[in-house]
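Hi all, long-time lurker, first post. I run a small reading group and we've been trying to get comfortable going from sequence to structure in the token notation. Rather than ask abstract questions, I figured I'd post a concrete chain and ask someone more experienced to write out its structure so we can walk through it together at our next meeting. Sequence below, copied exactly:
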Amino acid sequence: QVQLVESGGGMVQAGDSLRLSCAFSGLAFATYAMGWFRQTPGKERIFVAGISWGGGNTYYGDSGKGRFTISRDNAKNTVYLQMDSLKPEDTGIYYCAAVRASSWQSPDHWGQGTQVTVSS
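-- Answer (accepted) --
Happy to help. Here is the structure in token form:
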């Protein structure tokens, strides 16, 4: 059974930084592409960033491009999202996702989410 547990969310001010972590438990972490999504009330979950199974390729949604950095440590079964220069519009619940047999549109596994609140 794959489980994803996010951590690192919190309340910060505009311009601050946060680093989110997602701990993967289960088998074969290194065979999954991993990603981060954000959801706000009444809106669909949107893609924020993704990283290939080996870490060689990264992908970013428009919202975080240039400010967010996704990385992974396959030895620790963990994926990270470094968020810099945070803006109020970055506020939302951030979900970790694992993709192997599916796609970014419908990941195989989701975490429970961690709240990020950015005040102006």
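A couple of things your group might point at:
The longest strand covers residues 18-25.
The chain has a mean pLDDT of 96.
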